[in-house]
Amino acid sequence: MKKWNLIVDVAKCTNCNCCTLANQDEHVGNTFEGYSAPMPRHQHRWIDIRSRERGSGPLMDVAYVPVMCQHCDDAPCIAAAKNGAVTKRDDGIVHIHPVKAKGQKAIADACPYGAIRWNEDLQLPQHWFFDAHLLDRGWKEPRCAQVCATGALKALKVTDDEMAEIKSREGLSELQPELATKPRVHYKNLHRYTREFVGGTIVKTVAAVTDCVADARVKLERSGTVVGEATTDAFGEFKIDGLEPDSGRYRVVIEVEGRVTKRLDVDLGKSVYLGRIDLAA
Amino acid sequence: MDRLYTLAFSALLYGIAIAMKFTAWRHPAYRERLKEQNVVGQIRVKGGTGRYYVIKNGKLSSRHGIHPNPDVVVTFKSERLGFHFFTHPSDRFGFVTAAKSFSVTLEGAQDKAIWFYGTIEGILQAGWRYGVDAGNGETRYVNMANGGPLFVYVKDDKIVRMTPIDFDDRDPQPWTIKAKGKEFTPPRRTSLAPHGQTVKSTIYSPDRILYPMKRVDFDPNGERNPQNRGVSGYERISWDEALDIVASEIKRQKTVHGNGAIACSHPSHHAWGNIGYYLSALRKFEHAVGMSEVHHNPDSWEGWYWGATHHWGGSGRVGQCETYGTVEDLLKEAEMVVFWSSNPESNSGAYGALEGTIRRQWLKEAGIKLVHIDPYYNESIQLLGGKWIAPRPTSSPALALAIAYVWITEGTYDKQYVETHTHGFDKWRDYVLGKTDGIPKSPEWQEAETSVPASDVRALAREWASKKTYLGAGAWGNGHGGACRNATGIQWARTMVCLIAMQGLGKPGVNMGNLQWGTPLDFNFYFPGYAEGGMSGDMLLGQALHQRMPQLPSINTNTQIIPRMQLPEAIMEGKAEGYLWNGMSIEAQFTKVTYPKPGFSPVHMLWKYGGSLVASMPDSNRYINMFRHPNLECLVSQNIWMHGDTKFADIILPACTNFERYDISEWAGLGGYAHHGEQQLNHRVITFQHKCIEPLGESKSDFWIFQKICERLDLAIYFTEGTNELGWVKRQFEGSDLPKHISWKEFVRKGYFVVPTEKEEKRAPLSWNWFYEGRKKDVPEPMPLPSDYSQGYLNGLQTQTGKIEFECESLKRFDPNSEERPPIAKYTRPAEFPNGKGFEDYPLQLISPHPRFSFHTQMDGKDSFLNDIPDHRVLVDGYYYWVMRIHPDDAKVRGIRDNDLVRLYNERGSVICAAKVTQRMLKGVVHSYASSGVYDPVGEPGKSADRGGCVNLLSSKKSQISKGHSMGASCCLIQVERWKVGEIAEPVEQEESEQRVAIA
Fold first, then answer.
1. What CATH fold (topology level) applies to the domain A196-278?
2. Candidates A12, A42, A146; nearest CB to B867
3. Cys-Cys link to A200, which of A250, A274, B556, B796 (CB 3.0-4.6 A)?
4. ipTM of predicted complex
């Protein structure tokens, strides 16, 4: 049985918002009988884009994470719904019925991802339902994936076994694995949102002239064990990523031409740019 | 023979009557049309006989002979001409020739004449079928926006959805570039910019103007109360009343004040479509009426036009350079790209949707290193990664000089190329080294100007010299937007040319670009760009088009022009001065423009067509004060939305969007100064722009509005050439290469055509490579013009020496001692700079680049979906505020937190925005996009803070150079403070809102 999945690649999302705009285009002012009631014109973003800045200038990055209904196989909203107002379709899509769900705010409240919106006017919980009304008419993908120019959003209809293989091959993760809801939306490069980095710029001042130091080896140690390594680029910059937030003390060891020239201690909370590290100093 | 034609013509006229009856029987819409007017139409031969057609209450009868009192008369000089005319409807050349020599005339009441002629033409149009059945009761139409082509699904005259175009099986396969052992092919679909995906919400917008309106205290025959513009409200009037008022006023202005009294101001992008465009229908209207031109400055290209062109020519591209073949060369050969004030992910290259975004994904796969130079950690850095270098705004020329300094002192530039391909290097070298002014432009020297560490500059210079490097300057990579629009924009663009010249521009892997332009498409397939003038009849615009689509020429006898940046001074003080934007030659820009032109009337009536001057012009409170000035006796706004400065007009004429009328266009088909603009795209897509829905309310197409005014001035037959919009669309189709590939009927049904992919061996050659290798110019662009070569046609560049000139001979001829624009590129601090004048009171540099989500003022405001993008506008207490960005340190000392309302101000004005505190800013720099679509003063217009977000209220009107007409408005000094509703000047009335959303 092939079922729908959505892969979100955080590294490819540039916050153009075309996905969320396409979703508004599809649902504001439109009723799709049996599928959905109209979406409010504003402030409903069924597809929301969360963002996070890490580090500081000049060494920083910004991640954008589109978040929408995760179409969980173990969906809390289904459990919270009365009279079968929320159903799991055979193709994996979670669907909130626009008539049966009326008045059931509990459905919206049940979503641990905050992905179900409460339509105050219609007294209706609403969500991104994978544009099932279009898929049922033969469309090949939902609107958000069609309009995504970078391929940050990709819809896949595969068996659960095939999806498990893709997940492990591409290193996909869940938005919030601790919730254990078996979501059908899978994230790639989520570390840019959930993990931390240590970075810096290595320079050396000789006779009052400062230059960047390229090809320096930078090791990140924790309790004497190397947990990350990087080589500085032409601008003397290094960045060691994938660290746990608030993970405490690390030691940065800088080697130039095989010799350790500098050691620095870092107490890691959030991602940190250590600034310009002058080997001559 | 003549006898034969007499018989044939007579039979043909009878046949027309039969055809009309048949069409009415077959097509209900045509049947309805016949009920619109009662007309007696006569078709005849001069001095001979003919046939007349009586259309009454929807019924047609016709008789051989001459009617004693016809409403409309079509007269042919001979039977032969008449016969040819109706049997060869596609012979536009014959038609225009006959009309120009008065061998065929159309006379009578203007409206009836056009209607009668259109009814005959309608026989051919009645059978055309538009759109494709999409199931579910929906019809799939096609249209185009500034943000890309769209499938438009319509049900019961309502737009259901708008999507990108997925190509079908019969559309061509795309191109492939083989580079670095990989193959790169774009997807078989079109992309959309955010403002393209948001169009539906602006069609169905509460800000649509649905009826003609008159300001309540504007009496055209009595008190006009100009001082109340922007304050007094409006009353709905009928179209007839509105058209009568404006037509009478046009006559009055010309009679009372004389030639020159009426001026027209338009933006660059009111809508999309080659017929209903500002350079098309509006241009013909301006010419027909005789309007003074509000002359644009080269707004998105300032530094390139006034600066770069003197070094490398390229006047026909506004001082930018050719870009052919650069996508392929960059991917194959380049090892690094330097994005310098180049943020193509922000404004989508203008018109290019996200096509370049798709290609720039390949940079990583191709292992190409990236450097970004911008005081803002911009959207392109965010997506693409690479080294971020953040100079202070307006200081980039100093950084560029220091790079040259490193190359010169370390001997790492292409000395051979500089020797053989350039001119005047020694003079510039001596300046860079400090031999002429005692200041070596070293990396350490620049640090004080830019705040960029000297070590970064040395590292960049060394990387650049050791790698085959593309320079992407501005959003297009060869110019456009970015730093060329600030006070040192000319200096910056000039130094960009000098740097790339030092590394051997045109060598494989060394060129201008950032993958935004230069795709390998078929550029020999002809379809006119919008700048070719459509139906304007403008001979200069339509040089290429007119031979393909003959039309009556139009010439404006009113040759008075007003420099746009000084329009307020022109109106209020009666004087203005500037220099021409004209790409004909390098020297054209040296022509001074003076207003008023000797013997012409000063302007007393302003026709505003779309757009918003207050959003996009520098120091724009001036424009508000101008709108309210008594010298302006009448202000007309022809607009789709009540936005920006529409609300200052006396009469408002509601235009519909291009989704409510017919048109035709190519995606990113610009022509003119952006020749082959489709080089931004992965596919050339030409669309028949369907009339997807009926115009909302009483709004009308621009063409209709012009026609109806022209009817009152007896100009309508000239304006329309007797044909309707659809007829003009078909003429444009026939003038292009489309008919060789697709029938008209199929085109109007399917709605789009994808130009077949160019074969690899026929692709356009690489730009500049001919110059590098010493060949004749071989890229497919018609500029420079033949007389602009000093070394013989196609040999060398447009410059005096035919080489890249470090020392510009054109500037030496014009003004050799200019300190603002000396013959070599130098760095001079602008007036508004840290530690400069005014810095104590206004210690922050505000940069205001082209917006990311909206397109100029388009799609912003209007209750559009863009309101919901938190990086565009933020909802605070029921109001959507424009976003400004500020560094955490600058925010902290001012007590500003995320989403706080703040006042941005200086001595020129105040703007209220919502703050976004972000590490993405260089400290000391504030960022807020230019061109908000909302102007909403909290007190008296022109004198109080604006909470709509028009940050151009704060920018300086100072031209970058005094002998120019060039904005330097994208950076100015300001102060920022927290703001609470009601704190400024006059109290603000809070809008009632049901959605009071708490902002964390």
1. Immunoglobulin-like (2.60.40)
2. A42
3. A274
4. 0.97
